[in-house]
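Single-chain item
Fold in token form
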Amino acid sequence: MTINQTNNINKEPLIEMKNIVKCYFEGKENELEILHGIDLNIYPGELVAIVGESGSGKSTLMNIIGALDRPSSGEYFLNSINVGKANDQELSVIRNQRIGFIFQNFDLIGKINALKNVELPMLYAGINRRECSERAKVLLDKVGMKDRIKHLPNELSGGQKQRIAIARAMANNPDILLADEPTGALDSQTSQTVIDIFHKLNREDGMTIVLITHNLMLAEECDRIFELCDGNIIKERKGNIANEYLG
């Protein structure tokens, strides 16, 4: 059992989902239920993977975890905040300050350099520009991009773009990093570099990280793996990282 998992015994969940159901076209003849009562607890400092094939409900669950969508029923608490009852303005604050998003296609702004891309979430949060710049430089150094701060995204490789995206996701010191197929556009060697950064942030900074992926090799490098199928969590198990600690 990892150190983080051992410490979870007396901790409250950082993410707590109770009987989460998500339907589309509610009340109509073509009503479609995608998630069928998800129960999910993720604890502070965990590195967790949610895996499943296309159509399993991964994207729908990710959108709810990321406060991008609301469940049709059930309760979702993020660090004791009832996300399901938050209004639109409160959800916006949650997305900006409590969740760091990392996407497969990086989503960097092409007209501004790496430093300014990382500064942007902090500026939206009302932090003064000097503090934004100083923190952005620290974060870019943490992901090994200190020497690329003035580069535009089109001057960088895919792996470098993803490292900048990780730094940007850390900008407002979020409760969790939520990564959607973070290595999906990268080759295997570059993917490993990105995975190593996740391990560093998890172990050294205690960052809670949730990976949404169909890549089982990536998932095996996590503490716990939740397997999603047809809108249900059908299995929970430890990854190889956890098994290494078990000896």
In short: The chain has one domain: 44-68+93-246. The domain at 44-68+93-246 is CATH 3.40.50.300 (Rossmann fold).
